[in-house]
Amino acid sequence: MIPSTLDAVVTEIADEMRARSDRGVVASYIPELGRIDPNQFAITVVTQDGQVASGGDCDVPFSIQSVSKVFTLTLALGLAGDRVWNRVGREPSGSPFNSIVQLEREKGIPRNPFINAGAIAVTDVILSGHQPREAIGEILRFMQFLADDDGIYIDHNVAASEDESGFNNRALANFMKGFGVLDNPVEYILGVYFHHCAIAMTCRQLATAGRFLANNGVRPETGYSVVTQERARRINAIMLTCGHYDGSGEFAYRVGLPAKSGVGGGILAIVPGRASVAVWSPGLDTTGNSHLGRIALEMLTTRLGWTIF
Ligand code: DON
User: Fold this and answer.
1) What fold characterizes domain 5-63+201-303?
2) Cα separation, 296 vs 14, whole angstroms
3) Is 9 a catalytic residue?
């Protein structure tokens, strides 16, 4: 069979990435992530008409970390609607993902739902009135539903490792609690937060889970509406402006797509109306985003002419 242009481009990118020696640096502030082999790379593209193109280690599960924040935001908006925006803003922070500096000036309201402080506030919304165990289960089941795969799991070693080393996140959460921004006990919120960051998924699963964002809020394979068209558009807007923290401008300049990164080295990128793309390479750049992941996405959008601009 003659490979499609998409298959050929994805294979080409996987081959080029495999050959590169600049891999970035694996996150080590969560000790369990520091043990991951940086010589891994994966890419999966799932198009709206159901075509799947994969390359590299696309069936190896990795820690999705902050990519989970797209899905917790989606869940929180479903539960509380626009009241979420009383707790968290929608502006790029221009600061690293774990920064505390803006919180004091802005009365404990985080700049956006993707920096750690913002995601902790979003987790508080999901937790409301539930036990941590129930909230964790709800988030995990949402991921399994979106990816149509019950095999998605939480890596408890990663969650425990982050809990043991989570001094910075405890500082952020306690600071927000002091401003009255969080309702639930800090340890409950962080328990849920550490566990949703520790969800493990493959690129194939992650790209599948992202399809509703590329398709006006609807899962294309079933016609099931996950969010309204307006909400999907807005989540994409926040991914574009805030998805890579203080690297968001550079990412938009080079790749030109809404996307969300995680310190596990994963990136979910959305090509509205066309495709959902997941890439993974564990080595990070200086802004905490996957080094080869970003380069691979830049190649993909350049070679296929995919952009929202
Ligand atoms: O809270 C943390 O530091 C991690 N669980 C998530 C941070 C993250 O993924 C930032 N992304 N690039």
Assistant:
1) Beta-lactamase (3.40.710)
2) 8
3) no
Q: Is there a binding annotation on residue 253?
A: no
Contact residues for 213 (Cβ-Cβ < 8 A; gap 6+): 70, 232, 235, 236, 239, 258, 270, 272, 276
CA–chain centroid gap for 84, Å, is 18
pLDDT, one tens digit per residue, over 152-209 is 999 999 999 999 999 999 999 999 999 999 999 999 999 999 999 999 999 999 999 9
Count, residues in the chain: 309
262 lines ligand 1 (CB under 6 A): yes
Q: Between 3.40.50.2300, 3.40.710.10, 3.40.1390.10, 3.40.50.300, what CATH number should domain 66-197 receive?
A: 3.40.710.10
Question: Is-catalytic flag, 66?
Answer: yes
CA of 65 to the centre of ligand 1 (A): 5
Does ligand 1 have an atom closer than 6 angstroms to the CB of 161?
A: no
pTM of the model: 0.98
Is 116 annotated to bind ligand? yes
* Residue 114 near ligand 1, beta carbon < 6 Å: no
CB 103 within 8 A of CB 88: no
Residue 152 Cα to ligand 1 middle (Å): 19
In tens, the pLDDT along 271-308 reads: 999 999 999 999 999 999 999 999 999 999 999 999 99
Examine the residue annotation and report whether 10 is marked as an active-site residue of this protein.
no
Residue 1 has pLDDT above 60, yes or no: no
- ipTM associated with this complex: 0.98
The residues spanned by each domain of the chain are 5-63+201-303, 66-197
